[in-house]
Design goal:
The complex is a heterodimer of chains A (about 150) and B (about 190).
Chain A lengths: L1 H11 L1 H5 L3 E11 H6 L14 H9 L4 E5 L4 E7 L9 H5 L4 E11 L2 E12 L7 H4 L13
Parallel strand pairs in A: 3-5
Antiparallel strand pairs in A: 1-2, 1-4, 2-3, 4-5
Chain B lengths: L1 H12 L21 E12 H6 L13 E5 L5 E6 L9 H4 L6 E11 L4 E11 L6 E2 L3 H8 L14 H10 L6 H11 L2
Parallel strand pairs in B: 3-5
Antiparallel strand pairs in B: 1-2, 1-4, 2-3, 4-5, 5-6
The chains are: A alpha+beta (about 150), B alpha+beta (about 190).
């Protein structure tokens, strides 16, 4: 029974331990988290990459959280992005929208959400996910029809 | 002792189970596949401050993501979207309540399989006995901050920073040549 209580106390203490940051280096695409999570525009593959680039700019500029989507499907909500102190509507976030980057920073997990505080963007590959080849543009009105 | 242990385990499991906060909610649907109405009391917090202890004044004055620390279970809910169907975040709407206790009404998205946890679209907010305020302030604040961007069409067609990015790399972000070829195909 003593072992049970010790184990239980360890489990109860787990959230405090989870709040500790961990240094990580991850590679992934800078995405618009709202469209990715909500499905408002379609499935997850259609709201990343070049097809969704313009919408990603819109959402990022308005302060919708950006994420870093890794190849294994993990999404890290980005709270700070490199040289600027924030990732909320900032210029760096706009410049890197839809780009695949390698980032070094501190990882936190809280209540099922992964967070990263990016200290440095080590590599910027640009946009490598050419999703417009499969999905055109999402949403379909992202590009205004050229005037005659 | 057995009963005490069982109660302790139940307590431990409670935050892990998806709780229902839909009672009393008047949130309107956005027809999102995993949306659930959610009305709850919470403290408006700077998420980065909450995680790291790095806490500038006034939740970063709009430069940091804001969260809702739910009173019922201490879960940190990510305030991702405001009430406007215009590609708009929730920071502008929640910043006036930084550090305050509020009641929010909106849609929460959880999906264990995706996984998605505690993503929130806030539709209205109130502090104490005050009236509800619609979480629809982004475009007003944007217009006040961008007086030179007046014109027809939604804000995102006129925002100078967005226009500069599109001018630089095109709508697809792949350069003007790729854009031109795609536009010719897309509108043919």
């Amino acid at each position: 029974m003593r072992r049970f209580w010790l184990g239980l106390m360890g489990l109860l203490a787990a959230p405090a331990i989870a709040a500790e940051g961990q240094r990580i280096t991850v590679t992934g695409e800078i995405i618009d988290t709202w469209c990715y999570y909500s499905g408002v525009m379609g499935g997850p593959d259609s709201v990343v990459g070049s097809a969704h680039h313009t919408c990603a700019l819109w959402c990022s500029a308005s302060g919708i959280p950006i994420g870093l989507l890794t190849e294994d499907g993990t999404v890290y909500t980005v709270l700070k992005l490199g040289p600027q102190d924030n990732a909320t509507g900032g210029d760096t976030a706009l410049t890197l929208a839809s780009h695949t980057v390698t980032a070094d920073g501190m990882f936190y997990e809280r209540d099922g959400i992964n967070y990263i505080i990016v200290e440095e963007v080590l590599e910027d590959q640009g946009i490598v996910n050419l999703s417009h080849e499969d999905y055109d543009v999402v949403p379909s009105f992202a590009i205004p029809e050229p005037k005659e | 002792m057995k009963r005490l242990a069982a109660s302790a385990l139940a307590l431990l499991a409670a935050p892990l189970a998806a709780q229902d906060f839909s009672e009393g909610s008047e949130a309107r649907t956005w027809n999102l596949y995993a949306e659930v109405p959610a009305l709850f009391d919470a403290k408006v917090v700077d998420v980065m401050c909450e995680l790291t202890g790095n806490c500038p004044a006034n939740c970063g004055d709009g430069e940091r993501q804001l969260g809702l620390l739910r009173s019922a279970d201490n879960v940190l809910v990510m305030a991702t979207k405001n009430n406007q169907p215009a590609f708009t975040g929730a920071v502008v709407d929640l910043l006036p309540y930084c550090g305050k206790q509020v009641t929010v009404d909106g849609l929460i998205i959880n999906d264990e399989d995706f996984p998605i946890n505690n993503i929130y679209l806030v539709q209205r907010v109130k502090a104490g006995d005050a009236d509800w305020t619609k979480a629809s302030q982004f475009t007003n604040v944007w217009a006040a901050e961008n007086p030179d961007a007046k014109g027809k069409g939604p804000w995102f067609r006129r925002d100078p920073r967005i226009l500069a990015e599109i001018e630089k790399d095109g709508y697809l972000g792949l350069g003007k040549d790729t854009d031109a070829a795609f536009i010719e195909y897309y509108f043919e």
